[in-house]
Fold:
Amino acid sequence: MLLAVDVGNTNISIGLYNDADLVAAWRVGTDPTRTEDEYAALLNSLVSRPLLSLDDVSGFCMSSVVPAAVRPMRLFVEKHLSVTKSVILGPDTDLGIAVRYQPPADVGPDRLANAVAAHAKYGGPAIVVDFGTATTFDAIAQNGDYLGGAIAPGTEISLQALFSHAARLQSVEFYPPEKAVGTSTASSLRSGVLFGTASQVDGMCARFAAEIGGKPRIIATGGLADVVAPLCKSIGIVDQMLTLDGLRIIFGRVEG
Structure:
């Protein structure tokens, strides 16, 4: 089995694959201080179920935007897994696509995994909107090349900044508002955040589509995708496994 791990600034996504089939998936909080042995304890507790064991893991693939997490995760693999092939996405990884970004190493590996998966699963051209700590937009060409993208503050980061500067505003639960014109502070916040994000997404995707040409498929992923995507006119697909699937596909493309 393949263990695929995507370390984000807020959460770590973990998937177990049997060939192309996703057997199980989890999401845990990111902790840059976690040691290799703590990763072992965590993963063993997650995988502890009938017919699943870390002893069955023969391959490992990882992307990380948290540099401090790379070394302990690598040590976890070396100490606690018996893998025949291990891939940690970096500037020299053979993705099977061209990266038209300068310098290519500046693109987050999770965004490249998204691009690979989007093209492999849905074809091109495509636009990926990832609702993570940041909201990222990525453009994929007809032939699968990564063209570039845009980065905006994530919804939760924006809210935290707002609450820290506005004493009378308090956190609200995320669910779609009934209308744009809020009649209370809570409904006004939901409208501004969710409808505002949806409008941002639709506007950015329209600009991307005009620049890359064709009729790109627009795919959403990330924590708030299930909440925001239904409010967007542009998004046609929600795929929460996009990044992990990208890691699986890249793992299969890397020799050795």
